[in-house]
Amino acid sequence: MAKRKHNFVPSSEKPKELNLQEIIANTEIENAPPPIYANHAEFSINPHDIVIDFIRIEPTRSGTGKIQAVLVQRIMIPLGLGKGFATGLANLIAGFESALGVKIPSHRSRMKEDTIEIWSE
């Protein structure tokens, strides 16, 4: 019976640690899609993912007074990324406010289903 060949070479070196910041910093962005404007977001969750729908709400140009809402992008992220995403976004905004000495108003009213408060009004 033939011996099985292995495609690896044993090494005494420790595996390199993944430096995510370095990988992101070296990411090519010249072919990135153009930014998309959204002024509203809706969130939903399932057992595997968080879904964020970015929506642009604007009055129609026909003069009827009707408001038009357009889904401009749906992003799905794994549950494990959700808390880090929320924390990172909250820290980014807090740092911006602190650096400029401003208070950015929230356009979202507190809702009865809110279980945490990120910023007090």
Describe the structure.
The chain has a three-stranded antiparallel β-sheet. The longest helix has 22 residues, at 79-100. Strand 2 (49-59) and strand 3 form a beta hairpin. The chain has a domain at 34-100: Nuclear Transport Factor 2, Chain: A. It is built from two helices and three strands; from the N terminus they run H-E-E-E-H. Residues 1-9 have low confidence and may be disordered. It has helices spanning 20-25, 79-100; strands at 40-45, 49-59, 67-78. With 121 residues, it is α+β, with helices and mostly antiparallel strands.
Key phrases:
121 residues, alpha+beta, 2 helices, 3-stranded antiparallel beta sheet, Nuclear Transport Factor 2, Chain: A, extended, 3 strands
Give the H and E element order: HEEEH
| Helix and strand composition category | alpha+beta
Separation of termini? Answer: 75 Å
β-strand amount: 15-25%
pLDDT < 50 stretches: 1-9
CATH architecture of the domain at 34-100: Roll
The CATH topology label of the domain at 34-100 is Nuclear Transport Factor 2, Chain: A
Please state how the strands of the largest beta sheet are arranged side by side: 1-2-3
> Judging from the principal axes of the Cα atoms, what is the shape?
extended
Number of helices: 2
Mean pLDDT: 79
Largest sheet: 3 strands, antiparallel
Class of the domain at 34-100, according to the CATH hierarchy? Alpha Beta
Question: If you compute it from the alpha carbons, what radius of gyration comes out, rounded to the nearest whole angstrom?
Answer: 23 Å
State the total count of DSSP E strands: 3
